[in-house]
Request: fold
Amino acid sequence: MLKVLSIVAALIVWGLVSLTLPPELFPGPIETTRVLWGEIAGGRVAMDVAMTMLRVVAGLLLALIMGIPVGILMGLNRRAEGVLDVWVMVGLTVPSLCYAIVAFMWFGLNETAAIIAIAVTAAPSITINIWEGVKAIDMKLVAMARVFEATRPAIVRRVLLPQIFPYVMASARFGLGIIWKITVLVELIGRPNGVGFKLFYWYQLADMRQVLAWTLLFTIIMLIIELLILKPIERHLFAWRPQVTV
Amino acid sequence: MNPVIEVASLRKAFSGRDGASRTVLKDLDLTVGAGEFLCVLGASGCGKSTLLNVLAGLDKVYEGRVSVSGGRVGYLFQEPRLLPWLTAERNLDFALANCRVRTSRWSELKSRYLAMTGLSAYRDYYPHQISGGMAQRLALVRALCVEPGILLMDEPFSGLDEITAQRIRSDLLSIWEETRKTIVFVTHSAYEACFLADRILVMSGGAFRQEIRVPIARPRSYDDLAIFDLSRDVIRAFGDEIDREATRPVEPVSEPSLIEKLDRGAVVRMNI
Reply:
């Protein structure tokens, strides 16, 4: 309920502020929605959104595939931790634009390069999350499982993985937040379609109404994914966790 | 009583950070008979938890001979160590499955021990939804469910408030009297040891200092004066090596002493 109210309030503020500025500089919510609707009705949206989504999902999967094993290794092995932690920091520090440029120059202006750039950007923060998760594993529960004659595979599956899983979820969400942004940037530099490409296109034509319409579209899609997919999954998976009240 | 636990010249040393090794168990000899309730009494750091870990098979690096027979070993830790993502019942299933107890027996075993500890209504609760005392009781149920011949307990009630701890101790004794499992119970509380055990081994510096047989008849009551007297004697003899505090349940105050405690003037005024 509060969420809805805050969104309504933000729309009102947007509307009021837009009244003080010319529409070609800052169109209001109604004008923006009208432009967006025109784009959707004209069939010019589906393809770009689909391409962006594809890159986001592929990039996230690849980032998880790269980030999780490294995180686990760093959590389990002190030597690996010592060697790798500086590189994770480096990976985190390099601007995503650099990854995108390097990927396009090495692999060409293609989908593979785009997805690699996206994944490489997000992987370090996923690694950090998993690394923390592995270090936070409660070894007392492992000793308990051993007392109850649990085999090694059973300990991994029923005691270790459930402890790491919340960190995997957190890192996926966190990674997704980064990936949304980098995907748009990658599309701007090196792809002929997608939401980022469209934003850049309308920027070059200096059409503020279209820029805001595409930004709005992007935000709505993100909110839908967050509220209708991620939140319910989390609620279902972590029903066992106590609610934190301060 | 045929022995189920036999330990001969058990030595165990840890190497510290500086490379120097520290002996935590010094040539221990121990025999525990089937169905016996043994308490190992000692201050923290005396090596009693290490001994339990060796008996449980959690620690396999030691010198000497250790033989544990008489069935599966159950272990109750100081904390409940329940899996927080599983409900109470699923936590029991976890133990039953890993110990390969036949599935056909699960429901009977679970119901039996849940009923004994008063937890029947809490099967579907997650660990964070029940109190610390209930969680520890559930851990006890989990240890009993897999039908161990021997139960090892590492200060299982020291983290609980006294009233809850007392209740579970009584539960434990009645379960023990019914099932006659061999129990090795580690504690730093002389009173707890005197209340529970057939035999107490006082441990300090990695060795047993004294063996005490507890002559108090069963069933025992927690506020029995004989238990208090014995625990006081134990503390007098070994106070330097174990916890000095003799915790005793709230002393039953007789009426005459209540009146004595009142200030005389008040009594006079009340008479008027």
About this structure: DSSP finds ten helices and no strands in chain A. The domain at 50-195 of chain A is CATH 1.10.3720.10 (MetI-like fold). Chain A touches chain B at residues 140-141, 143-151, 154, 158-159, 162, 240-242 (CB under 8 Å).
